[in-house]
Amino acid sequence: MGSDRREREAVILDALAKDGRIQVSAMARQLRVSEVTMRATLRDLESRGLLRRTHGGAVPSSIHHVLARRSHRADAKERIAAAAADLVRDGDSLMIEAGTTTSLVPRFLTGKKDLHIVTNSTLVVNNARVNPELHVTLTGGMFHRASESMVGSIAQRTIRGFNARLAFVGTDGLRTDDALTTQFAEGADIIAAMHESACETWLLTDSSKYDHAGFVNVLNVEDLKGIITDSELAPEAGQLLTDHGVDLRAV
Fold first, then answer.
1. Residue 36, class by beta-carbon neighbours within 10 Å (0-12 exposed, 13-18 middle, 19+ buried)?
2. Where are the alpha helices (DSSP H) in the chain?
3. How far apart (Å, rounded) are the C-alpha atoms in residues 132 and 193?
4. pTM of the model
């Protein structure tokens, strides 16, 4: 593959990561190639699983979109995941819900012994597979491409068949009226099942999610043992959350 084509593909994938969608005509003008060449490039990228073509353009493939979202505020998400891992003890049992921040927790469990993880996230499995001390149960269920997760009744039954000390969950929005929300109902059901099956539920979320609302209400702040977020959370927001009795940790 020539360098021009590699550069063209890099520009296309970067545009998809930033904007979530591209148009053939606009991208062809930007790259100074014909629309025929642009369509051929998109076909090749689609064949390699890096995007999905649409009428007149393209959108990211599910895995590429998830990884692109994980790169947003990556430093903050890694600090949050590392702080969550500090809560884990040798011999612990964990529930880890699908999410771009929660999926990073296994990376920071090195040195911990004999840990049992139940998860609905394929990204958690990928991050845990290199550590022999992590014994992972992946729920069955219906595959949800946009979040790289397993959802549905089978996944819920699997989760409810286990007991855990800690559950790490994410959110698409934490509203000022203390509601934890997500974008799709099946994801809300998974969070609820993990909360019911764990002694402590911890929310892992970067501060950009505060004062935003997803489509479905899941839990109230009072249902959480604690929230781990980044140091950019506004002081007044932190005060509102601690007023609900939650253990708030900004890292």
1. exposed
2. 3-19, 24-31, 35-47, 62-71, 74-85, 122-128, 153-160, 185-197, 235-242
3. 27
4. 0.77
